[in-house]
């Protein structure tokens, strides 16, 4: 099945835009840490219909729900630690710089920080992850969709940020997770991220 591009909503009907923002927020929550018991319980009982209209996302979202029902919270936490934390060195890095430049804290992070300054955004105090962590990038996309400053939170800013800071490396991250033998719950999450990025890519292409 080919991805059906999102038809970006008009200001008068922003339900689809808010749904997009919610998906970015959900992905950020899943990647910043393993789901706690309450969040895991919500995933287990979630409807398997896609969180946003469009059948292309439904199989991938259904896999996330099925994985939550199959893998208990402690096993998900152990999987997260094994994949993304590790002892000394992570098995899979969740940082754009690594996938774009082959090293952490490299030029892609410098360029991202410059763009974030232009947007008036900066890393919150107490946050240890650098800004090119996939969760942080998804949070910025959520802000650019749902924020209330039209000078910053608009479709053109979304498209530019997405193309430079997410589309360029999301595929590599998803492939690394899906290929890892320890991945189970996060294989499903990676599949959902991949499907969503494909839909977003086609949607942004339509407004060229």
UniProtKB/TrEMBL annotation:
Keywords: Chaperone. Pfam families: Nitrate_red_del (PF02613). The keyword Chaperone applies. Gene3D superfamilies: TorD-like. This is Molecular chaperone. The keyword Chaperone applies. PANTHER family: CHAPERONE PROTEIN YCDY (PTHR34227), DIMETHYL SULFOXIDE REDUCTASE CHAPERONE-RELATED (PTHR34227:SF1).
């Amino acid at each position: 099945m080919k991805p059906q591009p999102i038809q970006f909503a008009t200001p008068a009907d922003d339900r689809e835009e808010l749904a997009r923002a919610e998906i970015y927020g959900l992905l950020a929550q899943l990647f910043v840490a393993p789901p706690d018991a309450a969040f895991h319980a919500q995933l287990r009982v979630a409807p398997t219909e896609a969180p946003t209209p469009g059948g292309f996302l439904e199989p991938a979202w259904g896999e996330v729900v099925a994985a939550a029902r199959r893998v208990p919270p402690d096993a998900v936490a152990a999987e997260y630690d094994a994949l993304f934390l590790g002892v000394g060195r992570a098995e899979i890095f969740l940082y754009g710089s690594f996938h774009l430049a082959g090293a952490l804290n490299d030029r892609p992070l410098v360029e991202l920080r410059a763009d974030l300054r232009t947007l008036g955004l900066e890393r919150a105090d107490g946050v240890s992850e650098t800004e090119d962590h996939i969760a942080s990038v998804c949070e910025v996309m959520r802000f650019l969709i749902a924020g209330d400053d039209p000078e910053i939170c608009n479709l053109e800013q979304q498209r530019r940020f997405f193309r430079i800071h997410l589309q360029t490396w999301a595929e590599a991250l998803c492939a690394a997770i899906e290929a890892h033998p320890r991945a189970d719950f996060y294989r499903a999450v990676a599949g959902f991220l991949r499907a969503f990025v494909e839909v977003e890519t086609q949607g942004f292409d339509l407004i060229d």
